[in-house]
Amino acid sequence: MCGIVGYVGRQEALPILTEGLRRLEYRGYDSAGIALHRAHKLAIFKACGKVREVISTLPKRIRAHTGIGHTRWATHGVPSDVNAHPHCDSEGRIAVVHNGIIENAASLRDQLLAQGVRVVSDTDSELLAHLIARVDADRLDDAVRTVLRSITGTYGIAVLDTAHPEEIVIARNGSPVIVGIGDGETFVASDSAALVRYTQKVVYLEDGEVARLTASGYEVTTLDAAPIARAPDAIEVSDGSYEKAEFDHFMAKEIHEQPECIRRTLRGRLDKRFHSARLDGLNLSANALLGFKRIKVIGCGSAYIAGLLGAKIVERLARIPVDAEAAAEFRYRNPIIEHDTLYLAVSQSGETLDTLVAIDEIQRKGGTVRGIVNVVGSSIARKCAGGIYLHAGPEIAVVSTKTFVATLIAFTLLALYLGRMRDLSPSDGRRLIEALEALPAQVSELLERESDYRRLAARYARYDHAYFIGRNCGYALAMEGALKLKEVSYIHAEAYPASELKHGPIALVTEHTPTVVLIPDDDLAERNLASIEEIKARRGPVLAIIQNPDHAASADDHVTVPAMHELLSPIAMLIPLQFLAYFAAIERNCDVDQPRNLAKSVTVE
Length: 605
Ligand code: F6R
Description:
By secondary structure, this protein is α/β, with parallel strands linked by helices. It has an 8-stranded antiparallel beta sheet with strand order 3-2-4-1-10-9-11-15. α13 runs antiparallel to α14 and α14 runs parallel beside α18. Residues 300-303, 347-349, 352, 355, 399-400, 483, 487, 601-602 line the site of fructose -6-phosphate (F6R).
């Protein structure tokens, strides 16, 4: 979703800002822009389209040492040049970039119009520039604080003022803002991706905080100007994590990183002495964990689907009821929060607003919530008083692949840990640990069969609709397979429990509607094979993902994945589904890493 970058220091700001914008591209956006301080004036360059299009409009060299940049994902107002950020006041004195949504924008707009201000864009963000310009204050941070006290909604902002050419004022409420500390230079970004090339030293702004950045450092205050002491943290990731290396797309790179991700999520967490797991980060004693009667998982999109699968894994081993729900559905139904329920919030980015607000709802009602999060130091990670970090490394492709797998590993560790506290036997615990240790090599083997997946994808990419079906874990996996395919290849794909097909969707099965059938080698395999017969009777093409070679018989095509511990089979079966989506997108000339309309981190409700 929208991205912010900014620089103040001795170096030329422009190359740092353009590089920062490129690093933010993966978040998904529709327009981009830059504002620079230049000879006591603001130079603004912005356009609808890709970052390279903005860069192509820039003069070769602009001497400026302070500037801000933005990638916009439209909320208020269509994608257009005029709606792109930065936005300025009528005099061109103040420039603002903004992530988030101003909820009282309509009344603020009316007030400004009544005062004769000419508002040129349809955005809520432009209003901030006019409002800041109209405050009579000597200091820019004072003016920003005054305006923010009258705002409701979410924001991460960076502001320039020609009256203060060597500073940037930033503020945060619900939308991340990170300060990067350099030597005689200071950076700001909404995502560490735009910072790691220059510094590993960062300060995370909290909600309700404002900071004034200069080349020599930063001053953080509350909205009421009370100073806050904040020491820098270190970012773990390196610059190389944001490069494609030998791959054509980040999605391919991240699919191939999965064996290593599994090892990283497991690292230091297998307890071979007690055949259990170590999850100290949960910050919950054994006693507290034994007191929970239920677990409720919340998340959005793939994180929710990983939660559905995780719920089945934990329930199976720990023998307590676990269910998962889409975070926004959960928060809007005034949920009953029970004190003997452990709530788990799943999020790759740790910034998804629907999940964040659901956490607020749980905490406000006195519930216990922990995070299963990839991005260290993200809002969700900090809001929950503990959890399980995935340690999957940065995920740059908009669609999640490696973090989905890492989430399943985190749930399996939790299942093992809770199971061994309850009635899972040591020998069953040991069997699962051995299976987890063998998994990276099995996934690597599946990754080597890329050319087979590519051939299949070429065949199935010509259809415009597809079904994915399975039972139990296979159904959750079908949901993920369908979501991946529609996100990157734009093929309309729907997932159903296999048993539901005959209750309606089969009406649409024809020779033009293929079905991907997920058939783990379990006691439901016969039922899944019967579903294939129903589809074949309607001449529907079938691609089966199987574990037992005997299950290939009536499918038109199949992929066989190795037999393994039944709780880990979904991970093996997921690999062909990820590749099916990836190669189908390539066949159809789609933008694999930045699919249309999608954002990596969805920070609006
Ligand atoms: C799908 C995908 C999205 C995210 C969802 C939640 O490929 O990536 O569905 O899973 O937007 O994002 P996080 O996990 O960052 O909370």
